Amino acid sequence: MKLNAPKAVLAALALGAAPVSMIALSAPAAAQIVPGIAIANPDAIVAASSAFQNAETQRQTTYKAQIDQAEARRAQIAAQLEPLYTKLEADSQAASPNRQALQQQAAQIQQIEQSGQAEINRMLQPVALSRAYVVEQISDQLTAAMDAAKAKRKITLVISPSAVISAEQAYNLNQDVVNELNRLIPNAQLVPPAGWMPRAQREAAAAQQQAQQPAAAAPAGR
Prior knowledge:
- 64% of the residues lie in helices and 3% in strands.
- It has helices spanning 7-15, 20-26, 42-48, 50-62, 64-92, 99-123, 125-140, 142-153, 174-184, 199-212, and strands spanning 37-39, 157-159.
- The chain has a two-stranded parallel ribbon.
- Mean pLDDT is 87; it is low at 1-28.
């Protein structure tokens, strides 16, 4: 962590009266880096990996039809909403606006927006599923990449950035882990297999299936 200059030096500098010898003697010492500690952001690491970046680029071509369809529908919905917004704004600026009518107009706009967004999300579901598939493949290698980076840097404690107020760049382990990820998984599969679900959904489905199974019969007493 960087050390703050003594208050006396700051005051003297503000007055323009600090002698050179005083500044030199009181200057902060070089930052001391504590060995064995590092900071890492797993989400940022995954997003910075070559596999993720390559997939983001390839997805624009592989799923172009779905993306174009969603963008066209988004433009249609925007065109449908534009006159409704214009009318709502004009009616709200009337001398004696009809509050009930304004509420009905606002509710209509909200309903169109929500249903339109749901429709677009359905169109883009294959795109979202592809991204989730890529992220899961990379995340599966994250622990190994983190361990390798820790070993090379002789790190024994890794802290989340959210727990740190300020730190020297030397503590940042992100790029080291990204380098290891790029070695372990330079590219990821872009298109998930048929029926694939993200891990959270698979685990939830498995838990539900297990809960629905009848409890095993208790062993009969002797």
